[in-house]
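Dear colleagues,

For the upcoming journal club I promised to circulate an example of a predicted protein-ligand complex. I picked one with flavin-adenine dinucleotide because it came up in last month's discussion. The inputs are reproduced below in full, followed by the predicted structure.
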Amino acid sequence: MSDAKTGAERRTAASYERLPMFVDAPHVALGRDLDARLTDDDGALHDAPRVAARLAELGLLRLLVPTAQGGGAWARDGAAVDVRALCVAREALAYVSPMADSIFAVQGLGSQPLLLAGEGTRRAEVLAEIVRGARVAAFALTEPDAGSDVASLRTSARRDGDAWVLDGEKVFISNVGIAHHYVVFANADPSAGKKGISAFLVPSDAPGLTATPIAMSVDHPLGRLRMASCRVDASALVGDVGQGLRLALGTLDVFRTSVGAAAVGMARRALDETVARVRTRVQFGKPLAEQQLVQAAIADMATELDAASLLVLRAAWEKDHADDARAGAVSVAMAKMYATEAAQRVIDRGVQLFGGLGVSSGSVVERLYREIRPLRIYEGTTEIQKLIIGGALTRP
Ligand SMILES: Cc1cc2nc3c(=O)[nH]c(=O)nc-3n(C[C@H](O)[C@H](O)[C@H](O)COP(=O)(O)OP(=O)(O)OC[C@H]3O[C@@H](n4cnc5c(N)ncnc54)[C@H](O)[C@@H]3O)c2cc1C
């Protein structure tokens, strides 16, 4: 599909069709379907409160919940969330609207702990609402003093009769303002250290919970949560006391590869926009596209993009074929780190080739330049990915 305003051509499916060793027919079909149907003519994918409903119409939220729990994560016999399907969806969404991509991913982060805890049946209504786009989920792990070092979180949970009472603060929580629930990680047994960390399904209107927005360089729903004697029902506990860290890290493990796919989608958009621009922009009597230094820049963009895409697909394939949840950790870390860093460089070259237009508000590459930046920080910074890779390779 080509963009009417800029002439950029979208070819998400084509990149998967050329790599049948990594994907199955349903992944290619999903890419083709999104190439044909994923447009944002009415602006819904750029309007946070309307995004979930549009994602449901597109059938994408079904990918977050396995068939057995009422979703349609078809490609792995419906038994688990299919990482390659997530990657196809996120690449296509991020190409069109990084905000919609982020909301899609956080719907997953806010439902996956329930699935990992084996609560699909008990929480069937919650999951069904997520799939219908009627419920927006969120995932609240980060705290002011616990970012990369998540295990040091201080939010506490204590049992009081038929309730849990939560106290603490969370920051940089995506979907604040539109979420119906937060999966909050809190320590229910401080004497056990990180083994006391537990997960709670906290409704956004729970008494004692205050959510305030954080302004960002891009227009994403993001905010801070304060819990002051925040009371939730005893049934809010997800899994058992002490399972929280496993659920949090397990959830991030499912989604981290797809952050790389989102970066690929944004970089692909930047490349397509840039190619369309240099074909028509004439300087020194001929199109920029015919100037050799411009061709060299395009070659660098395309090569880094393909390298990122290949690392993402390898990691996603490994996750989809792994028996052990921890398998593929190095490939996943490489994919997340390389794809997000490479996408930043690709987009930056795009900005350069647009010249003054590249830094003017309203241009697609200028928006992408701001949109790509948080991907190098969230779900494990680049430095943390390096620690995972380097640690695994040097461990005796
Ligand atoms: C847009 C956005 C959305 C987010 N959404 C969510 C969400 O929905 N839910 C949620 O729970 N969190 C969310 N986060 C938080 C995100 O996961 C954290 O910002 C991230 O984990 C980093 O934590 P921090 O910001 O506290 O940085 P810090 O941990 O303080 O790190 C600061 C710097 O120090 C580096 N550093 C830290 N430790 C080491 C080390 N050992 N060696 C080398 N360098 C190190 C880091 O790489 C980083 O460069 C979001 C963040 C952003 C920006």
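Two points we might discuss: The chain has three domains: 12-132, 137-242, 245-394. The longest helix spans residues 244-280.

See you all on Thursday,
B. R.
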